[in-house]
Amino acid sequence: MIRFLFRHLKGRRLAVFVAAALTFVAVACDVLAAIPFKIILDKIVDHRDPSLPFSGWLMTYFDRFGARGGLTQAEAHTRLGVVLFAGVMFLALGVISAVVAYVQLSVAAFVGQDLGARLRKHLFAHVEHLSLDWHVRQQVGEIVQRISGNITDIEKLVTDGLVDLLSGVLTLAGILTVMLVINWQFTLLSMCIVPLLFVTVLIYTRWVKRASKEAARAAGGVARVASASITAIVELKAFTLERWTARVFGEHVDRQQRFALQAGRRQAEFNPLVILFITLSDVVIITVGALIAAAHSGSYALGFLTVPTASLTVGTLTVFLAYSKQLYQPMRDLSKLTLLASTASAASGRIQEILDQPVEERYAPRGPVHPSRVRGDIVYRGVVFGYDPQRPVLHGIDLEIPTGTRLALVGLSGSGKTTTARLLPRFYEPWQGSLTIDGVDVRDYPLSDLRRNIAIVPEDSILFEGTVRDNIALGCPEATDEQVEAAARLACIHDTIAALPGDYAAEVREMGRNFSRGQRQRVAIARAILRDAPILILDEPTTNLDVEAEAEVLRALDHLTRGRTVIVISHRLSTLGQVDEIAVLQSGRIAERGTYQQLRTGGGPFARMLAEQYRYAAEPVRFGTVGDVPGAD
Ligand SMILES: Nc1ncnc2c1ncn2[C@@H]1O[C@H](COP(=O)(O)OP(=O)(O)OP(=O)(O)O)[C@@H](O)[C@H]1O
Known about the structure:
Elements: H1 2-8, H2 13-32, H3 35-44, H4 56-62, H5 79-128, H6 132-135, H7 140-190, H8 194-231, H9 233-238, H10 242-294, E1 299-302, E2 305-308, H11 314-355, E3 378-385, E4 394-401, E5 406-411, H12 417-422, E6 432-437, E7 440-441, H13 447-452, E8 454-457, E9 466-467, H14 468-472, H15 481-490, H16 494-498, E10 507-508, H17 517-531, E11 535-539, H18 547-561, E12 565-569, E13 581-586, E14 589-594, H19 596-601, H20 605-613
The chain binds adenosine-5'-triphosphate (ATP).
Adenosine-5'-triphosphate binds next to helix 12.
């Protein structure tokens, strides 16, 4: 996770360095805050003078406030002067500490928020550039959870945790150093509990991390089921699946709760253990320390340790006790951090998993750069492809679609029509064979150029957040209002838009749910007209429409398809009279090809499909002669 943070904090490392440097100052203030007590106690109780480096001149300055009478030989400074000096030192340390804390927390908050925002943008852009092949294997909710929830976990660690972590470690190191300098033998004695504490931290960190990882995974499940259920709310209601989805959702929530509780329980056990260890350490300091300090001179042997008593005054004992209490806070912070850090570590792993996926552009052009606008002469040669490595879906597709011709792909459901069409814009890569446009392999075009040359009208078009105008001008933001309106007129949607409040500025809500399917299809057609791509893929664009809406969309398509190379996928065989050629797919193979008239009378798979489609027609239809079928030429 450290590597992950280091990489993604690029450009903000100076800010992190400033926060870290300030932490040194803050910790130094905290550690030194116990010294004024020692100065006062040593002066008042033991009648000694404080020996603080670099401070002699300041104490001499404060001497003017006190009386010199009654001072012992060992005392160079007045009592009031030393007390005032200690008070000023305490106040100064407090003020510096407060100012530093403000700057430090502001910098940490900035770095955390900035990291979160940049990570979110980076991850989202990366996800968008991953292949469709990867996307179809993912759960939408899982991806959303990583972009929102998991990044928040990392943000929290940086904002709340990193300063605490550093100051915790530094405080421990600072306290230990000062104690060792004052009396290293007594320090070793009072720290005898530390190894135990260290092992405890290690074990508990591991436990908490494991539970947090499982909780994060379960949170992904919660998001996944929630998003899938809400997306399919119509089907859910239609099949009265509310209780079933609520149960599945509940199982994921329970799992998340179980692991989060487990992490919380470990945390709850850990804190009291730390308190117990610190108390034991205090008992040693108070009892053994008091005995040693009372001896006044000579040394005190404790097993293999000999503690010189002269160095252990009441003031020193107070400092040790204060430090022992101060040790507790960083330990507690560090223990809290274990949870924060484990959650963030699990989150960074889940984010890195996505970032490690190669983006589509890895299939960079291999040869010379080709014209960015193609003519549209398409050839499939021996194309083999499947989604699952063990199960090919297409078994050697051969197709030629000359520039400006319209080819219909028909076949039973699951025969591979959509898959065949989707190989053209390189949503997937064929296992074998080649796909060329104007004689150039599709892999030799820059991906963005290739896709700019292909417009797709799917079965159910989605509109995006924004205005109707934005939605039509989606592929070409530079289009003028006149061009947008002209495209809308050709797509037979202008009158509908003009009747909306705000007409072209009307807002599209929730992926276009405030528009009917037919209206959405016609907006998508207007979009494709404006995009003016030479190649067009129509994937069952009228499937879900009623007769009237279908007629409107077909009229709009008539304008769109003129002068372009078109691949149309359709189940409604009766609407295929306008195409130049039909290719019938059967189990991933081209079973027959020909014009509508040839296939209709040929007695092959197409004729059988046509007969099947009319089996339940209200009025019997005879096949055999041209013109029997509605929509035929
Ligand atoms: N994302 C996917 N992952 C795995 N298998 C898939 C995926 N998409 C399609 N398939 C499988 O590939 C085969 C061909 O699917 P495809 O969608 O190309 O058929 P189709 O002829 O367009 O069907 P339909 O007319 O029902 O849309 C089917 O067996 C389908 O189960």
